[in-house]
Amino acid sequence: MSLTKSKQNGSTEDASGSCQVKVLAAYEAHDPDDKVQLCKQLGEKLATGSYSYLPLMSTLKPAPGRPAEPRLVSPATVPRRRLGSREGRIALVHAIAHIEFNAINLALDAMLRFSDMPPVYYHEWLSVAVDEARHFSMLAQRLVQLGSAYGELPAHNGLWEMAEKTAHDVLVRMALVPRVLEARGLDVTPGMIGRLNSVGDQETVAILRIILEEEVRHVEIGSRWFRYCCDARGLESDSVFRDLLEKYYSGVIKRPLNIDARKRADFSTAELDYLESRAIA
Question: N or C, where is the chain less crowded by C-beta within 10 Å?
Fold first, then answer.
């Protein structure tokens, strides 16, 4: 455990524990502004090199903190409107903002839930949480510019439901959350950017371009730790990925797949061939 001593009073500060407490506080925060602010503070520690994190066994609550709104509904009932209208753009931005809010919690959960990983694992997932908090803030601000706010529309909880299914094993989590659900953003975001360009919403396009580029790194982090876990257990990653997808994911894989972005996120040729074989138009 990394310890630092205070020159002022000679007391010992557990720097690792302090960061762990703040990560837990961010995870449990219900108010989005509080969650984002705590992630920002942790990001400042990362940027200055004063970050130190030692995973401690924590009893996590059944679910991370989230506000009372948005109301959670089934995916089929989430409103979908044409992007030519302001209401349609609000619905799209709200849906993406909810995904990014869940992604903050997913990154923090990856730190808090799984012990015995190398220190860089926790460093990288904290950097993801910091990015996701910034993405959420940009989208929440865009909603205000459009005359709405996060929480004013219903949303679905698909990302977190998969987190619950994969909470028992870091290998399964790395395979299925960043590399299946979050990777879906790599596929669909270029199309959203094209449609928003066609209606002249350059403000939202600028945000989505940032998110798309940074999400490639997030998915690549998932790929790296998935393969690390496979190697540590003497498993062949391509077949493990295929088996886990068939066991846990009942959803439809839709075309088009963003092959270039997925290659940059370290999907193997065998994995991409398998996804193409399952994908439908």
Answer: C
Quick: pLDDT tens for 58-71.
677 778 999 999 99
Question: Residue 36 is inside which H or E element, if any?
Answer: helix 32-48
Q: How many CA atoms does the CB half-sphere of 236 hold within 13 Å? A: 6
Helix (H) or strand (E) holding 211: helix 202-232
Q: What is the DSSP letter of 255?
A: S
Q: What is the pTM of this model?
A: 0.91
Q: Is 102 exposed, middle or buried (0-12, 13-18, 19+ CB in 10 A)?
A: buried
| Exposure string for 32-66, b = 16+ CB within 10 A, e = fewer | beebbebbeebbebeeeeebbbebeeeeeeeebbb
Q: Please indicate, yes or no, if residue 65 is contained in any of the structural domains.
A: no
Q: Is residue 60 part of a domain?
A: no
